[in-house]
Specification:
With 151 residues, the chain is mainly alpha-helical. It has one domain: Orthogonal Bundle (Arc Repressor Mutant, subunit A), CATH 1.10.10.10. The chain contains 6 helices and 3 strands; from the N terminus they run H-H-E-H-H-E-E-H-H. A 3-stranded antiparallel beta sheet has the order 1-3-2.
């Protein structure tokens, strides 16, 4: 008999599902992180690259929303990428408090080299699920990310 939390069946099911989701995500993240660390990037730094690759130049605020990072953490990530001359920040002309982050030529070259390997690794990791299951999982994650509507 398991010890620990003795909640009702709804709570037990929710907690069990949450633990499985987090373990699966952390397992995949750890394997992806090995690829990124082999080229000297953190998961957050790669997130910045990926967002800029797919969405183009973004304000730091929008970038933080895209990669789910706090403004303080994102500032440090961008500082480190700037030191490596992979991104650059420019003040927004219409609002001098806002910075726009751009990939540099070196940054574009780097993401161009590493993204195909990253995409192949993610494809491999997700291949344990059939295409239909990947679609269902994606839909469920999106639904859960949106959260419950407040009344």
């Amino acid at each position: 008999m398991r010890k620990g939390f003795q909640g009702n069946s709804k709570e037990a099911r929710a907690l069990n599902t949450y633990v499985k989701l987090m373990r699966a995500a952390e397992s995949i993240i750890s394997r992806v992180h090995k690829l990124l660390s082999s080229i000297g990037l953190t998961v957050s730094q790669f997130g910045v690259f990926e967002a800029l690759l797919h969405f183009g130049s973004l304000s730091q605020r929008d970038l933080g929303r895209k990669i789910l990072r706090s403004s303080g953490n994102l500032t440090m990530v961008i500082d480190n990428l700037e030191k490596r001359r992979l991104v650059r920040r420019e003040r927004e002309a219409s609002d001098r408090r806002m910075f726009i982050v751009h990939l540099t030529g070196e940054g574009q070259t780097l993401i161009g080299k590493i993204f195909p390997s990253h995409a192949a690794l993610i494809t491999h990791e997700m291949s344990v699920l059939k295409a239909a299951d990947q679609k269902i999982l994606g839909d469920l994650c999106k639904k859960n990310r949106q959260g419950r509507k407040k009344n």
